[in-house]
Structure formats: structure tokens, C-alpha cells
Amino acid sequence: MIAKPEKDRILDEVAGWLKAKKVVRITLSRPVHKKSGLKNVYVRPVRIRGLDLYSFTYRHPERDEVKNHDPAVSREKIGGLLEHVFRNMHVYTLEQDLEVRIDKNGTYALKTSAPSFTSLPEVSHDRKKKRWITTADNRYLRELGVTDPAGRVIPSKADKFRQIQKFVEIIDGLMEKVRLKQPVHVTDMGSGKGYLTFALYDHLVHNRNMDVRMRGVEQRPGLVAEGDRIAAATGFGHLEFMQGSILDHEPGPLDVLIALHACDTATDDAIFMGMQSQASLILTAPCCHKQVRRDMEKNTAGSPVLDYGILMERQAEILTDAIRALIMNYYGYETQIFEFVSTEHTPKNVMISGIYKGKPANRESILEEIGRLKAHYGIQQHYLETLIPGS
Ligand SMILES: C[S@@+](CC[C@H](N)C(=O)[O-])C[C@H]1O[C@@H](n2cnc3c(N)ncnc32)[C@H](O)[C@@H]1O
């Protein structure tokens, strides 16, 4: 047992390890307040654009939140979490493992042991990134107008290219979490010009050596014809574009459904199609949340918060996506909501992912949660509910 003031000594020791790049992982767990919603926090080293940082994953019941900090700020963050938010901390370093336990009286108990790890994890994002989408020799990027004939990204398309890279990285990570039989059937709903459709196909087939059948569904015939032309020209033999609306599409076997910035309720159409097919993975980046907002505007007039247009807009976005995630939970999907690129590149940067897990035990409480949210914000019905038979 050690006395409470020694918290500073522990933090100094951790700070030394952080600075010396000896930390393999830190876990903070056993919340002080169970209802706080934060289950645990994982800290791991990362290298981002040449900087050695620590990535903090804050695990909430429905989502993860990730923040990166330099070693000095990391010490402060850990200091704020230990004792105030969590009673346990495990620090795995190349020198030793340290376990800190704090009892209800605030008494610290420490245990050290031989290191569980003898090397640091792969910290460089750069090495991994090389395996995502490369510009050189990628004819589809040229055909789509993302790169010039020399394989350089055209400046006005830099944000788009960054978005493509990030998207492929995210979906690659999510696909690792689900067991998929080959061939893997992937459909991109509202595929537009097909930037992401092509990039994902390229990655899965050429980097991951997967047998993939991919479709883009798009209502604009010109984009469909152009997508098919580029697929043929680039030899992407199992990629096709189909003209039509999402809801009318006959999906056939469907393992992975993606929908990026499908306008307003088209995101709901896509989620519905994915749930109906029990796709193993659904990944959407919603855009323009108008439907819920219309109800809210009618029913919350005079609200000191929602009378401000921008706050109404943000709240409508939050509620639309929260209810989407709850409906997905109800239908057996474990969901996460997260930002996928920085807001400086696009304001439409929230993603909802769902991994199919089977019927949940707490369906009644999910329904109650949805009902409460709707009642509080004067929402008659979320459009996604209207798609579900018997609703
Ligand atoms: C903003 S664009 C996004 C395109 C692409 N997903 C991307 O992220 O680059 C949305 C596309 O969805 C298509 N779309 C919207 N609603 C649709 C629907 N109900 N059925 C099929 N396509 C739809 C639009 O025509 C448009 O091309």
C-alpha cells in the first residue's frame, strides 16, 4: 500500500516512460462512477506525420472516441483520469508492468511485474498508409480526375483523395472485425462518381487479395454509364454500376453496405436495405439531415436553445444519427458513431458503422430510448422507422 500523495510519483514515472517511448500500452478501467458512461480508456503509442504521440481511445457503451496527445499532455490526461474517473490502471512498458489499484478510501496499491511485452507495437501510420491507395499507376484515379497523367493528386482533389484514403482505412479495419465468406458482396448506395467504390474495390482486390463482387447503385444514369466505362477500362471485372433508386434496388447477397453522403433520407434507405439483407457490416456517412429537423422546428418553437438556427441544425443532425444508431441496435447491429476526417476537409464527417451481432436482449429498452428521444424533441417519426414493415 502507498499513500495517496504518491499519485504524483506514479505519474512522474509514467511520464518518464512516455517520454522515453517505452510505453507499449496503458489501460484505465473500473470507473469511479458507473453511470458516467465511460467504460475504459486505452492508450497506445502512434506516429502521426513524424510526431510521436499517444492515442487515447475513450470507450463509451455505444462508441469510441480517439484523441492523440504528446507525452506531456498525455501525463496530464492520465492524471485527470486516474482516481477521479478510474480506480485501476495497468501500464505495460518495455521495462516492467505496473498495476495501480485505488480502493474506495483512496488508498493506492501498486504491483510491479516483469514486462509482458519486449517490443513496441507498429506505431507508424505511414507504413500502413502505403498499403491503402497509391496514386501511381492507378488509372481509375486518373479517369476520375483525382490524379494527373504523372500520377500526382490534382490540388483541387486533395480533400477528396484524403477522404478516399481515410474511408478505405476505416472500412478495412471494420472488415477485419467481421467474418466474411468469399466472394464478398459489397454495395455502395448512392455511389455518385464512384470515387470510393473504385478505391475500395482496388484495395480489397489488389491489396487484400479478396474475391469481391462490388456494385455501385446510383440514380443518375450518366454517372452509372461513366462508372461502368471506367471499370471496363481499368479491368475491374467484378465492379458494376446499376442505375436506380436505393429502395428499388434488388440487393441479392449482401455482406457489406456502404453509403457515403447519400442525401438526406437516402442514408436511411441504405441502412434499411442493409438491415433487411442482414449485411454483416453497414457503414454510412450521413448528409443533410432535413427530415427530423422539420418535425423539431414545428414542435420546439420558443426553445431557448433550438430557436438558434445553427443549434437546431446540429441538434437535428445529432438526433437523426442517434436514432438511426438505436434502430440499428434494435435490429441487431452493434454501432459506433465517429468522425472520419477533420472538419477542415469536410463538415460532413460523421460516420455510423454497424456490425451485425444478432437480436439484442434489450430490445424493449432500446424502443423506450427511441420513444423518449422523439417525445422530448417533438419528433413524430424518424424516416427510417417508416421503412420498417409494421411500424
Ligand atoms: C453527395 S453524392 C455522394 C457520392 C459518393 N457516395 C461519394 O461519397 O463520393 C450522393 C449521390 O447519391 C445519389 N442518390 C441520392 N439519393 C439516391 C437514391 N435514393 N437512390 C440512388 N442514388 C441516390 C445522388 O444522385 C448522388 O450522386
Structure commentary:
With 391 residues, the protein is an alpha/beta fold. It folds into two domains: 4-113, no CATH class; 131-387, 3-Layer(aba) Sandwich (Rossmann fold). 37% of the residues lie in helices and 26% in strands. The protein has twelve helices and 14 strands. A seven-stranded antiparallel sheet has the order 4-3-2-1-5-6-7, with helices on one face. β5 (86-93) and β6 (97-102) form a beta hairpin. α1 (7-19) runs antiparallel to α2 and α10 packs antiparallel against α11 (363-377). The longest helix is centred in the last third of the chain and has 22 residues, at 309-330. The relative contact order is 0.08. The mean pLDDT is 88. S-adenosylmethionine is lined by residues 190-192, 195-196, 217-220, 245-246, 260-263, 266, 269.
**Span between termini:** 58 Å
| CATH homologous superfamily title of the largest domain | Vaccinia Virus protein VP39
User: CATH class of the largest domain, please?
Assistant: Alpha Beta
Q: Are any ligands bound, and if so which?
A: S-adenosylmethionine
- What's the SSE pattern? HEEEEHEEEHHHEHEHEEHEHHEEHH
**Major sheet strand order:** 4-3-2-1-5-6-7
Q: What's the count of strands?
A: 14
Assign the structural class, choosing from mainly alpha, mainly beta, alpha/beta, alpha+beta, or little secondary structure: alpha/beta
Residue-averaged pLDDT, rounded? 88
Which architecture of the largest domain per CATH? 3-Layer(aba) Sandwich
User: How much β-strand is present in the residues?
Assistant: 25-35%
| Share of helical residues | 25-40%
Low-pLDDT runs: none
Largest sheet: 7 strands, antiparallel
CATH level-3 fold name of the largest domain: Rossmann fold
Assign an overall shape: globular
Number of helices: 12
